Amino acid sequence: MHPKRKKRLTLILFMVLGVGSAVGLLMYSLSQNINLFMTPTQIATGEAPVGRTIRAGGLVEPGTVVRDDSGLGVRFVVTDGQSEVTIAYDGILPDLFREGQGIVAMGKLGEDGVFVASEVLAKHDENYMPPEVQEALDKAHKDGKQALEEARY
Amino acid sequence: MSDALCFGGGVKTQLIAVVVMWQWLKQLYHRLGSPKWFYEITTGWIPWLAVLSVVGTVVGLVMGLLYAPADYLQGNSFRIIYIHVPAALLAQSAFMMMAVAGAVYLIWRMKMAAWVAKVIAPVGASFCLIALLTGAIWGKPTWGTWWVWDARLTSMLLLLFLYFGVMALQQAMESEDSAYRAGAILSLVGLVNIPIIKYSVEWWNTLHQPATLKLTEKPSMHPDMLIPLLIMIVTTYVFFALLIILRTRNEILWHERKRSWVKQILES
Questions:
Q1: How do the domains of chain B map onto residue ranges?
Q2: How far apart, in whole angstroms, are the C-alpha atoms of residue B61 and residue B81?
């Protein structure tokens, strides 16, 4: 290769590497601010500020969704498998909201540890399948559970 | 791969094969630098690429919109994936191609590379915009919001602005040479954004879900939904190739308009 071209090539490689590492370090130091939401574990360990608007995310714990008798108020527990946080929300939930669904809520953490949300978004996962397949999966899950219970007695 | 190459006879044959391939690549590279060679060889490709793009789009969209089953959770709104994912993939690939072409121009001063980088920029920006818009349309019924400042969406918006920046620089200066060089440098700097877009959903908590199509694992999608998506992805790349070839040919005709071979084409 021509020495002049070689020089330009090394210059470009250094530039790309330099910019890459600079941005990498920046991202690393900012990672807490880039995260869209805090996990229930972060909230439970006291990382989340009380009384400031933040986002909390996790899976809706099955069986914990309690709706008000009047109005749109709803309370549910969100978990990440380790810790839990109770969320109170007064408004219209997204269509995809259901038990076991991942959600991201924006709001404030109260002194009592209840997260009062002003907006709830549903998080979608990367799985796509037709309804019949999901039904078959649910059925297999149920049958398996039944078989397990029958075997127990 | 090494087994297949070893079959004929040992290390020597392999070495020769590598050298031959290297020579061939070098030759191709030098030829690509010639506008006349590029113009002549691509003339025959255009009808094929055009037919493939139309057939692929029709087959992919009909399969995806009419025959693929609805999603168990999202119903029919998931079908926007057949536009969104190919456009988003292409917007990133096009940026990488533009940066590589820019680097070739900076190092070897190959005019063809500068023209290719110039014609890619608006096409890539359009696909980036399509990905952002279809994402917003899908986000409203699925997430409950048009837009959220999470890492994936923000880095994709940054990609659009980088495209705009490169386009602006390519047009900004009196001398074409320095304009192309400035655009090439910005596209090389912007290259750092590509891995950020790709891994944003893994490095940080985002609202956007992780990738469904993975190179190393089975895709987490039913085959009936997956096949139309793969057709649409391949077709989008073919369509992109067609656009880039047509636009590069225009650049060639314009810049070489005083050459005899171009005059001959224009007269005939």
A1: 1-32, 46-267
A2: 11
What ipTM did this prediction achieve?
0.79
- Smallest CA–CA distance, residue A153 to chain B, in Å, is 35
**Which residues of chain B are within 8 Å of residue A135 when distances are taken between CB atoms?**
72
- List Cβ<8 Å contacts ≥24 apart for B156-159: B156/B88, B156/B91, B156/B128, B156/B131, B156/B132, B156/B197, B157/B132, B158/B193, B159/B91, B159/B92, B159/B95, B159/B128, B159/B190, B159/B193, B159/B194, B159/B197
DSSP B214: -
Q: How many Å apart are CA A118 and CA A103, to the nearest integer?
A: 13
At residue A94, what are phi and psi to the nearest 5 degrees? -65, 155
B71/B225 Cα distance (integer angstroms): 9
Tens of pLDDT along B193-226?
Answer: 999 999 998 888 888 988 888 777 788 888 889 9
What does chain B come to in residues?
Answer: 268
Asked which of B136-140, B232-236, B243-247 is least confident by mean pLDDT, the reply is: B136-140
Whether the pLDDT of residue B24 is over 50: the answer is yes
CB–CB contact A124 B143 (8 Å):
yes
In sequence order, which ranges of B143-222 are alpha helices (DSSP H)? 151-172, 176-190, 193-203
Two tokens, residue A42? 């972060």
Q: Cβ separation of A122 and B142 shorter than 8 Å? A: yes
Q: What would the 3-class secondary structure string for chain A be?
A: CCHHHHHHHHHHHHHHHHHHHHHHHHHHHHHHHHCCCECHHHHHCCCCCCCCEEEEEEEECCCCCEECCCCCEEEEEEECCCCEEEEEEECCCCCCCCCCCEEEEEEEECCCCCEEEEEEEEECCCCECCHHHHHHHHHHHHHHHHHHHHHHC
Closest CA to B68 of B56, B80, B85: B80
Amino acid at B143: W
Instruction: Determine whether the interchain pair A128/B212 forms a contact, defined as Cβ–Cβ distance below 8 Å.
Output: yes
> What does CATH list as the number for B46-267?
1.20.120
B22 shares contact with chain A (CB less than 8 Å): no
Q: What is the pTM of this model?
A: 0.86
Which of helix, strand or coil describes residue B74?
Answer: coil
- Does the beta-carbon distance from B205 to A5 stay under 8 Å? no
